[in-house]
Write a structure and sequence with these properties.
Rossmann fold; 11 helices; globular
């Protein structure tokens, strides 16, 4: 059995190796936690996040798996899209490229939020390429929110998108005078984090600007969403094509809609939904020990 992680969230000194790959002309980054002869395991982060937010999960699972964690385009140490467009199709193609290039299939995937949305759709497009899948709050907007958006006419959606783009073009990345100031912001955003967790996520999630200040590593344009993509029915069709065992994890204190309650779970062949008490959107941070126990049991079954 692996050695339990400390309650404070302390990590060992042996971290991952940074590597790069190219997809759709972009230079993208990922970290490799070693153990290449073990079964491959991909950890895919959420929006406005970065690959090192998985460090506690990776450190535990690296003993039994070859763990790889990519930075999505526009996030972390990956390149930003020159035109500021970040589509679900683009994200899925990047994931497909990494899996193809590194010959990871059939791969196990654990993914969070936006990463979960990407991984679930990928698994529906390439059901033979995924062995097991864990998605933490990764189904996207609730059926009610999605229906409201789809009810908008194309001219309204286009206007909203263009106006959002204009607003983002005028928005400069927030600058923090010090790591301590950014650290305080991290703690403010997630009260469940221990000080050790919050500091690690902050140190890995910022770049230092030329004037000495610090800014988060993601492109502000990732906040925008294209005016058209797959319909909700098409996404449901992809979910129904997923052939591997699937675990859908939710935090009971999260804003996200639980698919067991809102009916989305019925579109999956084998999905099981688990909700965690005392956890918000980042279940893998908020309830790390319980999350790891649940995931290890699922992967071993």
């Amino acid at each position: 059995m692996p050695t339990p992680l400390s309650k404070s969230g302390a990590l060992s000194k042996s971290g991952p190796i940074s590597r790069t790959f190219f997809s759709q002309r972009l230079r993208l980054h990922y970290v490799d936690w070693g153990n290449p002869d073990a079964p491959p395991l991909l950890l895919v982060h959420g929006g406005q996040d970065h690959c090192r937010n998985w460090d506690w999960v990776a450190e535990d699972l690296r003993r039994d798996y070859h763990v790889i964690a990519p930075d999505l385009r526009g996030h972390g140490d990956s390149a930003w899209a020159a035109d500021g467009n970040y589509t679900m199709a683009g994200y899925i193609a990047d994931l497909a490229q990494l899996i193809h290039q590194q010959r990871l299939a059939p791969v196990t995937i654990i993914a969070h939020s936006l990463g979960g949305n990407i991984a679930l759709r990928y698994a529906g497009i390439y059901p033979e390429a995924v062995g097991k899948l864990v998605a933490i709050e990764g189904l996207g907007p609730s059926p009610r929110s999605q229906a409201k958006r789809e009810a908008m006419t194309i001219d309204a959606r286009m206007r909203d998108w263009i106006e959002t783009r204009h607003a983002l073009s005028a928005r400069t990345p927030r600058r923090y005078a010090s790591i301590e100031e950014a650290f305080a912001r991290m703690q403010e955003q997630n009260k469940h984090l221990s000080p050790t967790q919050a500091r690690h996520l902050t140190e890995q999630g910022v770049n230092q600007n030329e004037d000495g200040t610090y800014s988060w590593k993601f492109d502000n344009y990732v906040r925008g969403w294209p005016p058209y993509e797959m319909t909700y029915g098409e996404v449901e069709q992809l979910w129904s094509r997923i052939a591997c065992p699937t675990l859908l994890i939710y935090g009971k204190e999260s804003w996200a809609s639980n698919p067991q309650d809102d009916g989305r779970a019925k579109h999956f062949r084998t999905a099981r939904v688990v909700a965690f008490e005392g956890a918000g959107h980042w279940v893998h941070h908020d309830k790390l020990a319980g999350f790891l126990a649940e995931v290890r049991g699922f992967l071993a079954a």
